[in-house]
């Protein structure tokens, strides 16, 4: 299950009223354009020692344009960042420690054809669902 308050926290979004705690409230905020700082925040959580990680979520040229002018992410960029935040949140819940959650995300996994979970998550929503399924299996005691 999606822990909306936790995902909103990872994204750095203040909880404003009960609408923010609903899936549609979060969807609306992503579609309106997440703050540019959200990209930096999620990148720091997921890969604090890799200053280039954010460019996997938003290409460098686009990043530079966003940083100079428009201080909001597009809906597509926000969706990608929120997808990573959602997976990060569950990985942290499963592993309980940031370093172990990162280790899981950045190490190849047999159930993903030896691809790294973070790569599969960034690629598309279907990939994120596969990683979330693995994490849910780990959380609830199944083999993964």
From TrEMBL:
Tell me the leader sequence span. Answer: none
Q: Please, which domain of life does this record's source organism belong to?
A: Bacteria
Q: Which InterPro entries match?
A: Antitox_Xre, Xre-like_HTH, Xre/MbcA/ParS-like_toxin-bd
Q: Where is the Antitoxin Xre-like helix-turn-helix domain?
A: 26-86
- All copies of the Antitoxin Xre/MbcA/ParS-like toxin-binding domain together span 91-141
Q: What is this protein called?
A: DUF2384 domain-containing protein
């Amino acid at each position: 299950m999606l822990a909306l308050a936790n995902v909103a926290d990872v994204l750095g979004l203040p909880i404003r009223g009960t609408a923010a705690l609903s899936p549609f409230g979060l969807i609306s905020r992503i579609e309106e354009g997440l703050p540019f700082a959200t990209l930096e925040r999620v990148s720091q959580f997921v890969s604090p020692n890799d200053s280039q990680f954010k460019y996997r979520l938003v290409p460098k040229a686009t990043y530079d344009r966003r940083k100079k002018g428009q201080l909001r992410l597009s809906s597509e960029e926000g969706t990608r960042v929120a997808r990573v935040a959602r997976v990060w949140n569950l990985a942290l819940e499963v592993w309980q420690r940031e370093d172990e959650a990162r280790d899981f995300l950045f190490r190849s996994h047999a159930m993903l054809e030896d691809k790294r979970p973070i790569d599969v998550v960034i690629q598309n929503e279907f990939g994120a669902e596969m990683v979330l399924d693995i994490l849910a299996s780990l959380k609830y005691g199944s083999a993964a």
